[in-house]
Design goal:
With about 120 residues, the protein is mostly helical. The protein has one domain. α2 packs antiparallel against α3 and α4 runs antiparallel to α5. It is globular.
Length: about 120
C-alpha cells in the first residue's frame, strides 16, 4: 500500500510538470511537438541516472523507484502523446517531419538514458 501512495503522489507531481511544460512549449514551438520531445529526453536521462544510482547504492530504493521513477518520471514522460503526435503529423500530409521526429526522439532518448546511467563512470 505504501508503494501505491508513493506512485500516486509522484504521478500527481509528474503529470502537473508535464502539463506546465506543454503550455510553455506551445509558445516556443506551436507546429512541432517540442514539449513531448523535451520531457521524454529529460525523463530518459533522469531514469538512467536514477537506475544507475539504485544499482550502485543502498538507499531508500522504494522512494526512488516508486515515487520518482515510476510515479514522477513515468507520468512526466509520455509515449502515448508521442504516438498521437506522429499520427497527427502524418494525417496532416507531412512525411518528412514525423519521420525525423521518430528518429530524433528514439535516438536521443536512448542516448540520454545511456548518458544518465553511465555519468558516474565518467
Amino acid at each position: 500500500m505504501y508503494n501505491l501512495v508513493l506512485v500516486a503522489c509522484g504521478g500527481a507531481i509528474g503529470a502537473t510538470l508535464r502539463y506546465l511544460s506543454t503550455n510553455i512549449f506551445k509558445f516556443i514551438s506551436p507546429n512541432f511537438p517540442l514539449s513531448t520531445l523535451f520531457v521524454n529526453i529529460a525523463g530518459s536521462f533522469f531514469i538512467g541516472l536514477l537506475m544507475s544510482f539504485l544499482h550502485n547504492n543502498e538507499t531508500s530504493q522504494n522512494f526512488i523507484k516508486y515515487f520518482i521513477v515510476i510515479g514522477l518520471l513515468g507520468s512526466f514522460t509520455t509515449f502515448s502523446a508521442f504516438s498521437y503526435e506522429i499520427i497527427e503529423l502524418f494525417n496532416n500530409k507531412r512525411i518528412i517531419l514525423p519521420t525525423l521526429y521518430i528518429c530524433i526522439s528514439v535516438s536521443t532518448c536512448i542516448f540520454f538514458c545511456f548518458i544518465g546511467y553511465n555519468i558516474n563512470k565518467i
